[in-house]
Design goal:
Blueprint (H helix, E strand, L loop, with lengths): L9 E3 L2 E3 L25 E3 L7 H17 L5 H25 L2 E8 L14 E10 L3 E4 L1 H4 L2 E8 L6 E2 L1 E6 L4 E5 L23 E6 L8 E15 L4 E8 L11 E4 L2 E10 L6 E5 H14 L10 E5 L3 H6 L9 E6 L5 H4 L5 E5 L2 E2 L5 E4 L3 E4 L1 H5 L5 E9 L2 E9 L18 E3 L2 E5 L2 H5 L5 H4 L2 H9 L10 E6 L14 E6 L2 E2 L3 H9 L5 E6 L4 E5 H14 L8 H17 L1
Antiparallel strand pairs: 1-2, 3-15, 4-5, 4-7, 5-6, 6-10, 7-8, 9-10, 11-12, 11-14, 12-13, 13-16, 14-15, 15-16, 17-18, 18-19, 19-20, 19-23, 21-22, 23-24, 25-26, 26-27, 27-28, 28-29, 28-30, 30-31
InterPro entries: DEGP_PDZ, DEGP_PDZ_sf, PDZ_sf, Peptidase_S1_PA, Peptidase_S1_PA_chymotrypsin, Peptidase_S1C
Family: Belongs to the peptidase S1C family.
Protein name: Protease Do-like PDZ domain-containing protein
């Protein structure tokens, strides 16, 4: 969807910094918090600088007493008081709203070990913020509860922590909904209403529970920019609001309040820069919540499945027959699984999306003299909703209707809240390639991981539904596989001459082998050949030696049980 490589996030030294590389999953900091830091994009999960509630209330009380004492002073003093009063009332309103709606979240989580996919890493404890929304639900960030095993929440002024369940989570938009069944928790709690996108220089107050203290805190800032930004947690490109509030760990999921309504949810900042933080705007929040309410689960954000090139060069526009008054972007690549693949062609010029003209740089009008990439219009569509696309092809204009839906990459960018798939046969460990697997190579994974796998993870597109890129991740040594250990980290392409679609398909081909010898064809024309019966016997021996509970992950064993039941019933 939209222009690729990913839009420029910032200019440093005159060179654009792009985010076409999705950085590694991030380690736990010494304080036990997610750093979620991505080196190339230089973002961090945001939390807000501490300013205690008591200090703020004392400050407001002092100002009010001073105002009463000078009530009879000249008009100049009254004018000065009136000029400062709106900021004070905004801060006071934010505190009043937050006391009965913002909660502190305690999460125990455990992430999978992708090099040893049958076991998890040690558990860790993290903290974040959230706030109550309509329907007795708590809204927070997805990274606050990612890979959770246990979640507790505590409201302001209460020593009691209540058990919470994660009802829905959207990792692309970094949002999650929690529910608390204990009715005692909801006594005295008020929900916050969602407002609108604030204009530039409008003031917002971000409320939450940052590190360095246990009480609620408030930080004020103004809106600096509104544009699509890379969401670090889900590695997606969605609208975000930049504010000039100082950001510290601990406040993720807290509301940014403007007036008496929520303008966004705090979620990340820009490391290496002072007072640059980001909040998730209301349109993204509503898209997430409405999708959950309508379908009962997170539905995702739509994509056209296109890679487009700007047409800012005059010679380029002339080459494709664009008139001087025409503007648009050039289609350079189309995802084979998208509906756009049915009607669009390479070298088409997209002139307008849903009747909105697209500029040569890929932007569309937004509010008062602002512009935003047309990706935002696509992402705000509901799944299976149609959009009209006007394009130029061979010097002639055409208009098509395209059905939009979320699209999954060939190599998944994240795998939160799910166990990794694996299959072990004769000590050969087969896994689908994912970016979390590559992240196990460390923070510099795009330099230290196998170069070929890294390039395929970032560039290759799926050619059919449910397709996976399967690799031989490691060889658990045994007499049966001696000499094959150097073939680890290569892609598996065929089993007994049949091209594999995914890990489930590989598992079926191995299980249904009827020949004496089993052959695997790998990258670089490498071959693994095994005596099938000897390999089956060796598998049990190897699993017992390495204390591995099962030869396959739970998702594969469940599917195998279902297929065996269907076969038995049909016979």
């Amino acid at each position: 969807m939209g222009l690729e490589p990913s839009p420029v996030l910032e200019l440093e030294g005159g060179k654009p910094i792009t985010t076409n590389l999705v950085p590694p999953r991030l380690p736990l900091s010494s304080q036990g918090q997610h750093s979620l830091q991505r080196q190339h994009s230089r973002y961090h999960v945001l939390f807000i600088r501490s300013c205690s509630e008591e200090a703020m209330l004392l400050f407001l009380l002092h100002r009010r007493l001073s105002a009463s004492a000078t009530a009879a002073t000249p008009a100049a003093n009254n004018h000065l008081e009136e000029a400062s009063q709106p900021n004070l009332s905004d801060a006071y309103s934010a505190i009043e709203l937050a006391l009965d709606s913002v909660v502190k979240i305690f999460t125990v989580s455990s992430s999978p070990n992708y090099f040893l996919p049958w076991q998890n890493k040690s558990q860790r404890e993290t903290m974040g913020s959230g706030f109550v929304i309509h329907g007795k639900k708590i809204l927070t960030n997805a990274h606050v509860v990612a890979d959770h095993t246990f979640v507790l929440v505590r409201k302001h002024g209460s020593p009691t922590k209540y058990r919470a369940e994660v009802q829905a989570v959207g990792h692309e938009c970094d949002l999650a909904i929690l529910v608390v069944e204990n009715e005692e928790f909801w006594k005295g709690m008020n929900f916050l209403e969602l407002g609108d996108i604030p204009f530039l220089q409008e003031a917002v107050a971000v409320v939450g529970y940052p590190q360095g203290g246990d009480n609620i805190s408030v930080t004020k800032g103004v809106v600096s920019r509104v544009e699509p930004t890379q969401y670090v947690h889900g590695a997606s490109q969605l609208m975000a609001i930049q504010i000039d509030a100082a950001i510290n760990p601990g406040n993720s999921g807290g509301p940014a309040i403007m007036g008496t309504k929520v303008a966004g949810v705090a979620f990340q900042n820009l490391s290496g820069a002072e007072n640059i933080g980001y909040i998730i705007p209301v349109p993204v929040i509503k898209h997430f919540i409405n999708g959950v309410e309508e379908s009962g689960k997170y539905v995702g954000f739509c994509s056209m499945g296109l890679s487009c090139q700007p047409t800012e060069n005059v010679q380029l526009r002339k080459h494709f027959g664009m008139c001087p008054e025409m503007t648009g972007v050039l289609v350079s690549k189309i995802n084979p699984l998208s509906d756009a693949h049915r009607v669009l062609k390479k070298d088409d010029i997209i002139l307008a999306f849903d009747g909105v003209p697209i500029a040569n740089d890929g932007t569309v009008p937004f509010r008062n003299r602002e512009r935003i990439t047309f990706d935002h219009l696509v992402s705000m569509k509901k799944p299976n909703e149609t959009a009209s696309v006007r394009l130029l092809r061979g010097g002639e204009e055409h208009e098509f209707c395209i059905t939009l839906r979320p699209l999954q990459p060939l190599v998944p960018v994240h795998q939160f809240d799910k166990l990794p798939s694996y299959y072990i046969f004769a000590g050969l460990v087969f896994v689908p390639l994912t970016q979390p697997y590559l992240h196990e190579y460390g923070e510099e994974w795009y330099n230290t991981s196998p170069r070929r796998l890294c390039e395929r993870a970032l560039r290759d597109q799926p050619k059919k539904a449910a397709q996976q890129l399967i690799i031989l991740s490691q060889v658990l040594m045994d007499d049966i596989n001696a000499g094959y250990e150097r073939l680890a980290e290569l892609q598996v392409k065929k089993v007994n001459g049949i091209e594999i679609d995914n890990l489930k398909h590989l598992c079926q081909l191995v299980g249904n082998c009827s020949s004496e010898s089993l052959r695997f064809d790998l990258d670089d024309d490498r071959v693994i050949a095994l005596n099938y019966q000897s390999a089956k016997v060796a598998t049990s021996r190897i699993l017992k030696r390495h204390r591995i509970p099962s030869a396959m992950s739970s998702d594969l064993s469940a599917e195998q049980t279902i297929s065996e039941s269907e076969s038995a019933s049909s016979s």
